[in-house]
Structure formats: C-alpha cells, structure tokens
Amino acid sequence: MADLPDKRTAPIDWYLAVVEAADLSDKRYGIKGMNVWPRYGFRARRNLDRILVREIEATGSEAVEFPALIPANEFAKEKEHIKGFDAQVYWVTRGGLSELDVPLVLRPTSETAMYPIFALWVRSHQDLPLNVYQIVNTFRYETKTTRPFLRVREIHFFEEHTCQLDEDRATDRVRSNLDAFARMAGAFCLPYLAVRRPDWDKFAGAHYTIALDIPIGGARTLQIGSVHHYRENFSVPYRISYETATGGRANVHQTTFGLSERLLGAIVAVHGDERGAVFPSEIAPYEVVIVPIPTATARAAIEAATRELADRLARAGLRVFLDRGEERPGAKYFRWELRGVPLRLEVGGRELEGRRASAVDRLGTRSTVALENLETEVAERLRAFDRELMRRAQVAFRESFSVATDLSQLNGSTRVRVVGWCGSEACGHEIEKAIDGALLGVPEGTPPAVEGPPGPCIACRRSDGVRWAFAAQPI
Ligand code: ZN
C-alpha cells in the first residue's frame, strides 16, 4: 500500500487518504457530497452517537423523531431563518406526476418541522421544560468542494430543541448543554473552544450562538457544533405559549444544541498521524485487535488460545477483533494501525509459554499482559492510552494559538490568533480581511496563550470595552 501524504505539508490530502484507506467513508456514490457509511466507519459513528445519547440523556433530554420533509409555508415563518437557509435547501415540488400545492423542503435543520407541533404539546407551565433531541440526517445543497464528514450534502446530525419558562431558564439550558459537551469531548480526547459568535455570524434566527471550534493545524479551525439561545424569536411566529402559574399567558424561550458528523472528521484530523487514524477507545470500531503469530509447532495451540482471549474480552464488554487472516503479522499490524485500533495483542509461542500477551498501543507503548488478569489489564492499558492521547492533543492545542497585537501579523499566520477586539462590526471585518478568514468571536472563559487582559483593539486601537477574540481560517 502506498505511503500516506505528509500530514504537515499536505493536510487535506493526508486527511482524504486516511478516511479512504481506513474505510471510514465511501464517496463513490452517484451524488456529490452524499457518501456511504461502510461497515468500519459505521461502527465509529454508532460509538460516537452512543456517547452523545448517554450525555444528553443524563441531562433529562428525551429522544423523538420528526419527518424529513417540511411544508414550505411552515419553513418560511421565521424571517431571519428562511433568509439564512433559502439558498441551501433541497425542494420537493412533485408527488408522482402532480405538482404539489405546497412545496416541501428536505430538512436542513428541524426548527420549522418541530415548532408547529411544540405549539400543540406545550399548553401549561407544567409542560415545561420540554427537552427533546433527535439524531437524523439533514440535507444542504452545498455548492463548495465537498469533503467526507467535513462538508457534505447529507449530514448525520444530532439536534436538541428545548422550550423553557423564561429567558433565564433558557440561559441555564445553554450552560447545561456546554457542560454536556465538555463530557462528550472528554470521551473524544478533544480539546476545543467555546466561542460566542459575532452578531453577523450567528445562526439564522438566534438571539446568540456559542460555537464549538477545534484547531486543526495552522490558522485553520473546524466548527463541529453549536448551542443557540433563541429567546422568543421562534416561539412568537410559531405561537408556542403556555398558561402561567398565575393564569396569564407567556411565550416560551427556546434553545438548540447541534453536533454533526464533523466530530468524526475532527477526531481523524486531530489524533491521526503518519501511520493513519488514531481512535480514542470509546469511539474505536474495535478497541482491541488480537494478532496470532503462528509457529510451525504451536499453530493449533495458538489458534485455540487467541480464540479464548477474544471470547473473554468480548464477554467483558470490549469490542475485540481476532485477525485470523492468512497475511503475515507485519501486514496485519500495518492495517490495524492505519485503521486506528487503540490496542494490539500479539500471541505467539513465547507468549503462550509465558501465559502472557505482548501489547502495543496505537501510540507505540509496549507492555506485556498476564493472561490470568487479561480483562483488567487490557482495560487499564486502554485507559492509559486515552490519557496519553488527551495529553498529546492538549499539547498540540496549546501550541495552536498565539497573540497578535498588530493587523500586519495576521497575514499568512500559521496559528489561530488571539487578538484584542472592541466589539465593533467594522473592526471585526478588518480583522477578517487581515487574516483572510473569520473573527470566530469571544471565548467563554479565558482563552489559551494569553496573560492578563487584552491591550487595545487590534484594528481601531481604542481601549474601552476590549475583549479577547479569536481570528482564524475556518474550513
Ligand atoms: Zn476596534
């Protein structure tokens, strides 16, 4: 198999080669940007979804599922929303041979599918909060170059939609979503930024948007999700109101929390190396691969022993693959490293005699595992692997940023830039022009790479109301 392109000098080529060679996505389907999930990639996706479900349900959210088609008249009710999405949606205009009276939109996101029904579900203050989520495919007519997981036309999408009593409760829900994402990101071993987007870049129809951004090398960042506070922006046009405890009426305040398959792209881009993908154990399609090293005299004994080890690990709840193929062990090591399996166990004649297995994790750490303690020792190795993966990711994350104090430093930047910004839109656009990218916005909490408060605005030099902000090249 050909070597992978160099990750540092050709990151996009490297990314595309890893996604294809590791069998994560098949882009040969007959519609650009609508890709097939092959078996191995689908396993990773299912593990990812399991973590999203676990963490959002821990906050009291419940699963629902709404139809994929939305009547055009419902879609058009919130004006900012329709303006933001109009050019990106697929339209269904015919049913069989007849033109439809009301054209249908293939959902780009589900506000306008859900909220007419929320208006029926929410009657009184006792129906609140309403916290529901769905994991479905959404569709966007993407005109730019498509990339597996990063920019696609059919998107595997997690979306939570909530209705709250008032603005403060909705603010609390935003906070709770950010906390849930922190736990999810821990399982993905992914450091990230939570950034309040500038007004000109918030979600169409939102009061404000907090985006989740991941630095992926150079000045580039990847937005993998967002949390929005809608205030009453949707509940007024969709008439989602309730009877208050004192008998009056009030509109609900709403929030949403969205995450897409870009998460999987971020995991590949951040953790992968010159040998291929590297999966955190909770995401890995297989956590452990067992490679028998047959010898002339002990072939049958080694086969029986490796089968027993695989059974024991599976019974302990681990995702394990016993590679019994005919290839040489070296070829198997190569393939499972490319596919990012966290831990490989090798069992040959010497191991069998010593009642142990040789263990090599995907970051190259070697050890031996005593077969009598197989389950606990393998679990320990996986935990140590995840810790080391997170540590490495955090080192790279901190090195992704540097402070800029003059607009001239933004040109050709090889880091995400941390700058002082007065909050004005004119200065924001000047910063965006200088870095040939975007002003991501103001961080929640203290940004990396800074000491103390910001100096003057990098664009206008005013020093009143200046905050730290990020300038980057989102992909
Ligand atoms: Zn300014």
Protein described:
The protein is of the alpha+beta class. The protein folds into three domains: 11-271, 2-Layer Sandwich (BirA Bifunctional Protein, domain 2); 288-384, Anticodon-binding domain (Rossmann fold, 3-Layer(aba) Sandwich); 401-474, C-terminal domain of ProRS (Translation Initiation Factor IF3). The protein has helices spanning 11-21, 39-57, 72-75, 79-85, 111-121, 167-188, 262-271, 299-315, 329-338, 349-353, 374-398, 425-435; strands at 62-63, 69-71, 90-95, 98-106, 130-139, 154-164, 193-196, 208-215, 220-231, 241-243, 249-251, 253-260, 288-292, 320-322, 343-347, 356-361, 366-370, 401-403, 416-421, 438-443, 467-474. The strands form four sheets. The chain has a five-stranded mixed beta barrel with strand order 7-8-9-21-20. A five-stranded mixed sheet has the order 14-13-15-16-17, with helices on both faces. The protein has a three-stranded antiparallel sheet with strand order 2-4-3. A hairpin with a 4-residue loop joins β16 and β17 (366-370). Residues 422, 424, 427, 457, 459-460, 462 line the site of zinc ion.
